[in-house]
Amino acid sequence: MKFMRAALCLALLIATPARAAILDTNFQDTAFAAIPSQLTGMAWAPDGSNRLFLTHKGGSVRIIKNGTLAPTPFATISPIYTGGECGLIGFCFDPNFVVNGYVYFFVTVSASEQQIIRYTAVGDIGTNKTVIVPNLPTLGGNHDGGGVGIGADGKLYWSIGDLGNGSGVDANLTSLAAKVGRANLDGSIPDDNPFVDGPGGNNDFIWARGFRNPFTLTFQPATGDLWVNCVGTSYEQIFQVHAGGHAGWNDYENNQPPGYIVPKIKYRTNGTDTRNLVPGTGAVRTNNIATFTTVGSHGFRQGERLNITGVGNTSLTGFVYVASTPASNVFTAEQFGSDVASGSGSAQTLSQGGCVTGGAFYDSTAVPLEYRQNFFYGDLNSGRIMRAVLDSTNGVRSVDYFITGSSQQIDIAIGPDGALYYGNHAGGLRRAAFTNFTTQQLIVTPTIVRMAEDGISAISVRLAAAPAEDVVVSIARASGDADVDVMEGASLTFSPTNWNVPQPVYVRADADADSESDLAQLEVSAPGLENQNVTVHALDTVVLPVEPPSLQVVSEPGIFPLELQLQGHLGSTYVLEAATNLLESWNAISTNTLSGTTTNLVDDESIDIPLRFYRARQQ
After folding, report:
1. Quick one: pLDDT at residue 604?
2. Burial 54-88 (b: 16+ CB within 10 A, else e)
3. Backbone phi, then psi, for 496, in 5-degree steps?
4. Buried (b) or exposed (e) across 481-518, using 16+ Cβ within 10 A?
5. Range of the domain at 463
């Protein structure tokens, strides 16, 4: 990413409003919290705790809890190297965070090494720092990447740029520079990575290649596909990336030939493109579809907004969205009007900025259907956030401004309340919430859950408006695999005072004997309100490190105190923890060093506690 260098160099060229402004009047934009500067990432803990985690370039990880910045950092990562664009530059949560508390961070530890590390959350404090993937490349300067996430396949993904000097570009399969990497959650190499050659010359972690500076990445909830936001030289590009894909850097930017992946979304870095239309018949409208022919290749992408000007017949001018590109010099757009043929004039692209940053898919019923699963992404240089609307085939239908004036815009996250939160590198954090519902609604976030078998995940529920009296909301499995069901929160009560406070629902996916992933639909309902559905994908491969400790109750039903059996590695030390609900802090009961592979433990406190959750973690 270009970070402060780009922002300062372009300060005189780009007029950035002093205050953020949301352009969609259906939303209300407000300040959310004051936070430290040098923000690099933000994400909500997926455990129903309503905690927003923030990462900062210098290594500090902070938590906003109940709207207030916690005074004690979750972690202060060391060692850390912060020269150039280096530092703490990315993070993600484990899909099984409710159970294991794992948070993964992408950090530069020296002028020659980056790492993926993992902390275990114990309450609001990170413990048990573990290096998962060491020896990732950097030159201690620019284009370090920083994207990190866990995919629908339960694998760990990360992205690294060309290190500012063209490292790893083109056909280079020996370096992780200019690549997307993929590993198992213990840091080992998956056998199905596309360039695995064992002891051969390839770096077996490589999953895709040809990226200049992929600072951020995200996984699309509906498809599980990886989207990579890549900061460019001539074009900012957003790619939908699959195994073995090649984005073309450093030979191509937005002009990739067949055999390469092309951007789903692109825009000219710090400018616009203007393409002249062919005189005479360069603009033709038939049956409300306008076909435009340019002088030479246009490079436009589906959904891109264009301003058509100067056409002989003025009814063909105005703003349009590219519907298709049947040839390199032809594009079509929906445009209502009588059939007509004309030409000349030009098509100009939308000016979006010059440094694409973090993005998020809007997965919540807190917005009407036309906003759901839209992709929102930001630009650091212009301070804008764009909204990309997708069609039923996952093609881009339109791209427009959504927010302007978020100086040094850096990242976006959808909160458990269904609002869109966005933060900037300078330290601002704001909330944009849809406020134009005309009737009461059930607000459910997210509506698509990807988790592990033998795991627990959380969704959040609230109401859209204050009710006149208490509303009881029910959540139950409506269809699909019986191994997936509601574990806690099957009945929630919302009053005229707590209607807007998200309440958690915990979903359990039990392990089964088959090798197939499970799929189920949950239904969220309340008397007189429209039902909302949640789709749960439970991955058969357990999203945990290799050979985790296991814990089970071995005492007879109804016999107290409870006796538990811990299974783990000989000589390893494990902390047994308990909680009365999944929102409170876990309390340590005992610490145990195994003299064998199992040991039995007794929880004396369980006599007086009707509901108790347990977990074991390696110390």
Report:
1. 80
2. bbbbebbbbbbeeeebeeebbbebeebbeebbbbb
3. -65, -10
4. bebbbbbbbeebebeeeebeebbbbbbbbeeeeeeebb
5. 442-539
Quote the distance between the C-alpha of residue 305 and its chain's center.
25
**Token pair in block for residue 575:** 């902390």
Positions in the chain whose pLDDT score sits under 70: 1-19, 541-548, 569-572, 582-584, 595-597, 619
Domain boundary among 332, 349, 366: 349
Q: What rounded mean pLDDT belongs to the chain?
A: 92
Distances (CA, A) of 104 to 74, 307, 361: 13, 43, 21
User: Does 319 lie in the same domain as 289?
Assistant: yes
pLDDT confidence of residue 569: 64
Residue 493 neighbours by CB under 8 Å, 6+ apart: 470, 471, 472, 473
Last residue of a domain, one of 408, 434, 460: 434
Percent of the chain residues past pLDDT 90, beyond the cut: 81
Instruction: Say if 213 falls within a structural domain.
Output: yes
Q: Are residues 180 and 285 in the same domain?
A: no
Residues 345 and 357 in one domain: no
- For the chain, the domain total comes to 4
Q: Are residues 163 and 93 in the same domain?
A: yes
Q: CA-to-CA distance for 6 and 233, rounded, in angstroms?
A: 12
CB of 418 closer than 8 Å to CB of 427: no
Q: Tell me how far apart the alpha carbons of residues 296 and 327 are, in angstroms, rounded to a whole number.
A: 10
Give residue 619's pLDDT. Answer: 65
Q: What is the predicted pLDDT for the residue at 541? A: 66
Phi and psi torsions of 275, nearest 5°? -120, 130
Q: Whole-angstrom Cα distance, residue 383 to residue 353?
A: 8
**Same-domain status, 248 and 360:** yes
Q: Are residues 172 and 216 located together in one domain of the fold?
A: yes
Residue 544 lies in a domain: no
